[in-house]
Structures are given as C-alpha cells and as structure tokens.
C-alpha cells in the first residue's frame, strides 16, 4: 500500500462557508515541485472558487505510483521518466529547474568541478582542504531513494559511481536545507528555486547556478519539472493543467526562480 510521507495541503475555497470540495484535483509527488504547485493552486482556486486542488508530497516515485493506482489526477516528477515508464505515463514539462549545490555560509569553498563534486559524494574526498577549503571533514547530505532530486543528481553528477553510505539521507529539500544551514562541514543538493539566503550556492565548473544560466544551457545541472498523467486527464484536472501552462502560471514560476517551460 502506498504511503505518502507529507501532509496534504488542501487548497479549496467553497462558494460559501462549510462547502466541502469532494472532487478536488489531486496532485501528488515531488517535494521539489510541491511548494510551487501549492502556490499555483492557491492562485488558481482564488480565480475559480468553486473548484479545489489538493497538493501532496511524497517524492517523484510516489507521485507516479499514485497516478498508476488512481490515487491522484496528476503526478509531480522532478526527473526524466525512465524508459520503462515512458509507455505508461504522459509527461509534460511545466518548468525547468537548476540543481543547486549548497554549503553553509561559513564554508569558504565557492567553486567545484563536477569531478570534485563527485568525489565529495563518493567519499573519495573526505576533507575540505582537498578542494581548497579549510581543514575539516566533509559531511555530504543526500536525498532518499525514489527522490527525483536524487535520481537527477545521480544522472548529472555521479554517473556510474555510488553515493557514499556515510552520506546523511533526508526526505525533502527543507530537511536538506536545515542540516546544511546548521553544519559548516555539510554539502547538499536541492532545487535552485528553493535555496534561501541561509545557504550559499557553489559554482560548478565555474558557472553560477542561476535561472538565466539554466535557460542559456551553460549551467549543466538542470532538470525538468514534470506533470504526469495516465491517459487523458479529467476536465477539472485539465483546467488546472492549462492554468499552470498559461502565461500567468509560467510568470509565477519564473518569479519563484524557475525557468519557464516554453
């Protein structure tokens, strides 16, 4: 039985007090996409007060499973679909996101090569002095198995190398942020659009992780944000889908640090 680890965020404004939404569009999956979907849902329902949208996390794989088991109308996936998934689902890019490498502001390292980054997460590099930082241990923070963010990181950075078992595993972008914020030895990866001022983004191969560089193709750690369905969505789900891809929806995503889909 599918277990979804994050509390549902029900965004539904009834036509009158006490009016429940029994047919809310259910959107489930990636915790990277979740905050942006919640914002879009809030704006959408403000304009369509008789409709409802329920946004729930749990990870990209959980989103796909929820769609497959008719537990969700739309799945959120922050990685490319695997070959065996492509025939089962229909995926639509709603935005593009950079994968930011983040450290504590007290960490003096500002630039890493992809090879150095890989070494930090395999455990081959265990001291920050090996990459130009201060003498001290490296504590990599990674995401859980099934996370679209982790699978994108593995695809873009790790290749055939494995993430060290010494890495601390966290189940959301927010948890990664909190650990790195409180630990000067930590390094993690997360959605570029969710990095706040508490963390410092590291340049990779000399390129700043910015939405502009993702759009230009110069920042290589980039991935799609997908909405995934099976077959043709219902009318309410399609209506929300259309709003997300509209000029207004895309401008909202751009204002939050993502790169528009079109």
The major beta sheet can be summarized as:
11 strands, mixed
- CATH homolog superfamily of the largest domain: Periplasmic binding protein-like II
Helix content: 25-40%
Instruction: Give the domain tally.
Output: 2
N-to-C series of helices and strands: EEHEHEHEEHEHEHEEEHEHHE
Choose one word for the global shape.
Answer: elongated
**CATH class value of the largest domain:** Alpha Beta
What would you say about this model in short?
The chain contains nine helices and 13 strands. It has 262 residues and is of the alpha/beta class.
Describe the protein's architecture and organization:
Strand 7 (139-143), helix 5 (148-158) and strand 8 (168-170) form a beta-alpha-beta unit. The protein contains nine helices and 13 strands. The chain is elongated. It has helices at 34-47, 60-68, 83-86, 114-122, 148-158, 173-181, 211-216, 235-245, 247-255, and strands spanning 9-12, 25-29, 52-56, 74-77, 90-103, 111-112, 139-143, 168-170, 186-191, 200-201, 203-204, 222-229, 259-260. By secondary structure, the chain is an alpha/beta fold. Strands 1, 2, 3, 4, 5, 7, 8, 9, 10, 12 and 13 form an eleven-stranded mixed beta sheet that branches. Helices cover 31% and strands 24% of the residues.
